[in-house]
Predict the 3D structure of the following.
Amino acid sequence: MSSDKIKIGILGATGIVGQNYIKLLVGHPWFEITDVAASPRSAGKPYAEVVKEKWQMSIEIPGNIRNLMVRDVQDFASLKSDISFVFSAMDLPEKEATKAIEFKYAEEGIPVISNSSANRWTPDVPMIIPEINHHHIDIIPIQQKYRGFSKGFVMVKPNCSIQSYMIPIYALEKKGYKVEKMIVTTLQAVSGAGYPGVPSLDMIDNIVPFIGGEEEKSEQEPLKILGKVGEKGIINDDSIQISATCTRVPVSDGHTACVNIKFKNKIPNKEDIIKIWRNFKSVPQDLDLPFAPKQPIIYLENENRPQPNKDRHNDKGMAVTIGRLRKDNIFDYKFIALSHNTIRGAAGGAILNAELLKAKGFLN
Ligand code: NAP
């Protein structure tokens, strides 16, 4: 029997992020997966057969997904006509190829909510963390107008580590405490590299001090997120400077960030900062979206927290957990922040974006 839920597809359904969508969307009140797509290598086979050696989730493959026939992402002829929108979690070698596929869906009238970095720097594509720049959805009608899309559009979510530090920075800025400089050092989990990811001999008993392209993303993507909607695209913010060092550590899930911040003018005291973080709420909470964490920022007093294996699942993996706020000898303060990279930083964050779009009338 057909349900009343909105029918959706996953592009890149066989990868780590794709599998997370399948797990997280079990029982979702609004959305139901009825299409799974991946590379031509996987196309034409039942989903369960394609992922039998690489299923990484803690649940069995859901019954309604097991027998779905995997579609080639470029096979538009067999795309079901009742698909309302797709989540894109593809990892193609060429960014331009990913961009072209995502825009082709938009042209076909299918909105795309993407995890890929391919379209993050396309000026008329909003890159959204719903607690921060929810208003950037205003660029969607502009994108549709100038690109001639009737119903489709492309929207992206940012890199998997930046929500852990940008949500707390934004919470402070919203209360009038503008941050002008930040130094961020990330300790990123292996699941961030997809499957099979980093070779085990590089990861066991080791830290890899380089992740290609990650430092540039960590430094530049916040500028678009803090930017404003212009006539033909997002105009980046230029009032914050970020220096990032990104490392890969032997943790399964959960990206940690060590952050040093310098305020522009007023410097809040420690108690005020913690109070601002604990009280922070935004549009996803006001709209009571199904994936919105009740408290987006959790501050822990214990000096040995946050820790990935204890804190990454806070509020369904959607909350940012912070600890160790203290004075900094060179900047003003430093703290440690953690967020779940494949949930808040990937599939869960994109689901929250889709819920925002649905609540604002962009998806039906
Ligand atoms: P992954 O595990 O390597 O999965 C890649 C997916 O892309 C698979 O479904 C794969 O299908 C598909 N794919 C590969 N080549 C393709 C092609 N030529 N045509 C169509 N589909 C193709 O990667 P992932 O970690 O899930 O990441 C997916 C995307 O999300 C990437 O762009 C990544 O940068 C981004 N992201 C990842 C994370 C994270 O924490 N892992 C966080 C944020 C963003 P086959 O199985 O058929 O090869």
Residues 12-18, 38-39, 41-42, 73, 89-92, 115-117, 160, 191-192, 194-195, 341-342, 345-346 surround NAP (CB under 6 Å). The domain at 161-340 is CATH 3.30.360.10 (Dihydrodipicolinate Reductase; domain 2). Residues 343-359 form the longest helix (17 residues). The mean pLDDT is 97.
